[in-house]
Specification:
Mean pLDDT: 88
Order of helices and strands: EHHEEHEEHEHEEEEEEHEEH
CATH architecture of the largest domain: 2-Layer Sandwich
CATH superfamily of the largest domain: Pseudouridine synthase
Low-confidence stretches: 67-75
Distance between the termini: 51 Å
Radius of gyration: 22 Å
Shape: elongated
Length: 302
């Protein structure tokens, strides 16, 4: 928000909580609470708690959030493409190297910041509209909501497994079966706390399905679908069955095939639109860095 927001409370809104009153104009109740807690909101010139019941005739003002030095300019440099969009949601194609949302250990610009006021929904204002995430160095598709209702509906679709997420992964070696399911709980590794692992004290259910897309000399291209969405799930599960993702610096062999990142791409999203019920089916081709590696393997010139 670049300019102050002013709302004169009318009779219809009398008695509403302050955070409820501001939920719609600020994008969500969580964002309204964040603004109130940050001291950006006044009622008739005085700060009020989020539980304050507004009265008709009161003037509610919301000041713009102070800019963080260096962030605004950096956000303009965050690259991404929008492959599908309407007034309810958008499907974004994220390149490798872009972080989806702010997190501990990352202070630079993110996709969530670059989307600005276009994305809405969820309890964390720093992740507004983000329904699911991709690792920084995993490229491809993710869906972003533009309202609280659509955000909830898309998250429910993921829980019901009605939102299909397909990935292309080049792995070391070739699985013995053309298709399979990896059903192995994942959590923080017992020994290396920066890694996720099937060897964990706090396991969470995780299931990954794969199909052989193409057998290649020393490698295999797999089409992978997620039933759950744990951190690093595909990378951890493929390592667990002895076929780590090519180039994976954490769970495989860094620099394999000349790769500067893991060969993992979110290639397809398919779901029923949460408002219109029309099918949404979006695909993303392999980016040049991955496509060139695959072409070399196909010609046997690796």
């Amino acid at each position: 928000m670049d300019a102050p927001l002013r709302i004169e409370v009318d009779a219809a809104a009398e008695g509403e909580r302050l955070d409820q009153l501001l939920a719609e104009p600020l994008g969500s109740r969580a964002q309204a609470q964040r603004a109130i807690d940050a001291g950006l909101v006044t009622v008739d010139g005085e700060s009020r708690p989020k539980r304050h019941r507004v009265a008709a005739g009161e003037l509610v003002e919301v000041a713009p959030e102070p800019a963080v030095p260096g962030v605004v300019d950096a956000v303009e440099d965050v690259p991404f493409a929008i492959l599908w969009e309407d007034e309810h949601l958008l499907v974004v194609d994220k390149p490798a190297g872009v972080v989806v949302h702010p997190a501990r250990g990352h202070r630079g610009s993110t996709l969530a910041e670059a989307l600005g006021g276009r994305a809405v929904g969820g309890e964390d204002p720093a992740r507004a509209g983000i329904v699911h995430r991709l690792d920084k160095d995993t490229s491809g598709l993710l869906v972003v909501a533009k309202s609280e209702a659509v955000h909830r509906a898309l998250q429910e679709a993921i829980r019901r497994r009605d939102l299909r997420r397909e990935y292309l992964a080049l792995v070391d070696g070739c699985p013995p079966a053309r298709s399979g399911t990896i059903d192995a709980p994942i959590g923080r590794d017992r020994r290396v706390r920066t890694r996720m692992s099937t060897d964990t004290d706090v396991p969470r259910v995780a299931r990954t399905h794969f199909e052989l897309e193409r057998a290649l000399p020393g490698y295999a291209l797999l089409r992978v679908t997620l039933e759950t969405g744990r951190t690093h799930q595909i990378r951890v599960h493929l390592e667990a069955i002895g076929h780590p993702v090519a180039g994976d610096p954490e769970y495989g062999k860094a620099g394999d095939l000349g790769l500067s990142r893991q060969f993992l791409h979110a290639a397809r999203l398919a779901f029923a639109h949460p408002v219109t019920d029309e099918p949404v089916d979006v695909t993303s081709p392999l980016p040049p860095d991955l496509a060139s590696v695959l072409a070399r393997l196909n010609t046997g010139n690796d």
